[in-house]
Amino acid sequence: MLRLLIGFCAVFMINNSLASAESLGIYTQRQPFLLAPILDAYSAKTGIQFQTVYAPDGLATRIQTEGSNTKADLVLTVDISRIKELADTDLLAPMDSEIIKQNVPPHLRDVNGSWTALSQRARIIAVSKNRVGKEAITTIEDLASPKWKGRICSRKGSHVYNRALLASLIAHNGAEEAKKWVEGFVQNLARRPQGNDRAQAKAIFIGQCDIALMNTYYFGKMKYSKDHPEQIEWADSIEIAFFNQTGRGQHMNISAAGILKGSKKKQIAREFLEWLTSTEAQLLYTEINFEYPVNPDTEFSREVASWGEFKMDQLPMIDIAENSPLAQIIINETGW
Length: 336
Ligand SMILES: [Fe+2]
Fold this sequence. Notes:
Elements (H helix, E strand, L loop, with lengths): L1 H19 L2 E6 L3 H15 L2 E6 L4 H8 L7 E5 L1 H9 L3 E2 L4 H6 L12 E13 L23 E2 L6 H14 L1 H13 L9 H9 L5 E5 H8 L6 H7 L1 E4 L10 E9 L5 H11 L2 H10 L3 E2 L8 H5 L10 H18 L2
Parallel strand pairs: 1-2, 1-3, 6-7
Antiparallel strand pairs: 3-9, 4-9, 5-7, 5-8, 5-9, 5-10
Helix pairs in contact: 2-12, 4-14, 6-7, 6-14, 7-14, 8-10, 9-10
């Protein structure tokens, strides 16, 4: 009987502690398995649990429809334009955090505090190690040169990563120059734009082309791939060329986050975002995801550091977001 009573008490205590445990709901455009190690680290530290919903598309509409009934407190996006869309539709609450302001440089967060970058991604030029070499191309503008005719592979221009890159070219060089660049770039393609970033590495490996655009974290993911060992060879066939190093620096994109206006747990959500921008969490972004930190006090992981030091373009992310619609028009006109 005593045993039964102890057992009952134990079950009651577990249930009670679960009931009192705080939780946060997250809509994420990033695949949950990539987020899991970072969320687990925060749960272990604070006891806060997470309910993640993977919502790669239609996030603004979904949140608008749910209004104050939403179960999500936070949204995590990849690419600057997607978080700006949520801010523009008035779905994000100001974070109002001195800690985030201290941790994240101004060009990587919203002036009104409605979103912050959590990681940076370098969209570099991947080149065939044997047939090109990383010294051969120094600027992104070079890729429009006729000397690379028939040697470039590309994901579709309309993918957010490429659209953001083109938006940065519009911001720096003007729309007319940017359009000329795409026309030259498209002329140089070895095949119709297709596939994801890893597919471009494969195309270089099998000799379909020699040059492609790629986010560096894919290089890390391929190099250490457990499920797809063939990708280790793809990674081994390419080199990373950071571009525009003697000028404005390498184009960067971000993953970002904001707190939803409909959230009833804004303070807990804000504390979580503050932690995500701390060096402790930023280290996980560089170690687990092979991304670049937004907090400048964070060291790069050994693998990321091995790709080399480079100068990052400090163009405000908002300039990329604002030029993205024009970039899409150019992409449509040029057939990228
Ligand atoms: Fe990606």
